[in-house]
Amino acid sequence: MAKKSSQASGRRPRRDALRNREHILRVAKEAFTRDGANASLDEIASRAGVGAGTLYRHFPAREALVEAVYHAEVGKLAAAEREFAKTMRPVEALRAWMLLFVDYIATKQIIAPALNTLVGGTAKLYERSRAPISGAIVALVKRAIESGDVRKDLEPFDLLRALIGVSNVASGAGWQRSARRLVDILIAGSRPISHRRTR
Fold first, then answer.
1. Which of 54, 144, 194, 199 has its CA 20 to 30 A from that of 119?
2. What percent of the chain is predicted at pLDDT more than 90?
3. Which of 181, 179, 176 is nearest to 160 (CA)?
4. Domain 62-199, what fold?
């Protein structure tokens, strides 16, 4: 029994460390969204309820924290595709994921100045993110086509290009509202003609 207890206690710090890391990333995203990429790391640690030493143990430099926030956002998109597919109709899952993609673009824009300071640049970082994002949108559109909710010739990447385009041309914080409205416009325009006539 003592051995089992020792093993359990040995695993607990790893779970706690993972929870701490995930919580720090959530707080860091909020701080970057509110204050920009130069948000105070000490304030992030304080808001996360951990000591500065704990934060620096997980993320020894600002660049490491910013990069981890970016990877967490990409991971959230990939995980959301799987979760939405289980709990929503295909077209609803596609819409929910696209709204989440708007939030991802916003976070990426906010931390872009810090990402651009990474040694070696951002090319490899963005390259690694392409596969999970592409895989998610392709799977969502495929299910929506198979269900008959969207037209058969819908191109998944046209949806992403439209949202990215709005974020690139719009000025000020209002682009996110425009992008969210565009999600509904894109979903409506993706419906089969016969489906649109019967609604």
1. 54
2. 50
3. 179
4. Tetracycline Repressor; domain 2 (1.10.357)
Task: Assign domain 1-60 one CATH number from 1.10.10.60, 3.20.20.220, 1.20.1250.20, 3.40.225.10.
Answer: 1.10.10.60
Return the structure tokens found at 181: 């409205």
Integer Cα distance of 79 and 64 in angstroms: 22
Phi and psi based region of residue 50 (left: phi greater than 0; alpha: psi -120 to 50; beta: remaining): beta
31 token code pair: 């701080």
pTM: 0.80
Rounded-to-integer distance, Cα 22 and Cα 68, Å:
10
Per-residue pLDDT tens for 144-176? 999 999 999 999 999 999 998 888 876 566 788
